[in-house]
Specification:
By secondary structure, the protein is an all-alpha fold. The protein has a single domain (3-176), classed as Arp2/3 complex 21 kDa subunit ARPC3 (Orthogonal Bundle), CATH 1.10.1760. It contains 8 helices and 2 strands; from the N terminus they run αααααααββα. It is globular and about 60 Å long. It starts with a helix and ends with a helix. The relative contact order is 0.12.
């Protein structure tokens, strides 16, 4: 496949991701939703071109989001988890049995969620009170709920991947002249 075509494909996917990250600063609930959506184009890159092309695209989107997205907590979520998770997910699921893959994916999510919590307080100066409900600090409850939401997100990404492979990949393969 033509190198220029690969670069163009990754650029279009990056533009979609950066646009979604930008929108996260406009719509109030975007802190979690838009980084999750912005990571989805990585699926196409991993399937069509492999992880060697997905990593640089992830880095480019991360850097551009730092400068262009207003919601810096959303950017932090993208950088630490949502932007790289489709790549990590593909790597984890490629050679592991289902149970060990599941354990690794949850370990990755929990490590990044805890890192995001501390980095948000340290770098972004997010007050601890934002993790409070009725005067009680609840970061562990948020993490438990986050694990449930992560399980749904991981399942949704799997369904999107299957759908992409069935419906879009055959056409993309022709367009990109793969194989």
């Amino acid at each position: 496949m033509n190198h220029s075509l690969r670069v163009a494909f990754c650029s279009v996917m990056a533009a979609v991701s950066v646009t979604l990250m930008f929108l996260g600063g406009i719509i109030p609930i975007g802190t979690y939703a838009f980084p999750a959506l912005a990571g989805i184009p990585q699926i196409a890159i991993v399937i069509e071109l492999g992880t060697n092309w997905a990593w640089p695209t992830y880095i480019a989107v991360s850097i551009l989001s730092v400068f262009l997205a207003a919601d810096k907590e959303a950017v932090l979520w993208y950088i630490l988890f949502f932007g790289c998770y489709p790549i990590v997910k593909a790597k984890i699921e490629k050679r592991r049995k289902k149970l060990s893959a599941t354990v690794l994916k949850f370990a990755f999510f929990n490590a990044t969620a805890i890192a995001e919590f501390y980095l948000a307080m340290w770098i972004l100066k997010v007050p601890v009170s934002s993790y409070t409900i009725f005067g009680v600090q609840m970061p562990w409850l948020f993490l438990a709920v986050g694990n449930f939401v992560f399980a749904l997100y991981d399942y949704a990404l799997s369904l999107l991947t299957v759908g992409y492979c069935r419906k879009i990949h055959p056409n993309a393969e022709k367009w990109l002249h793969i194989h």
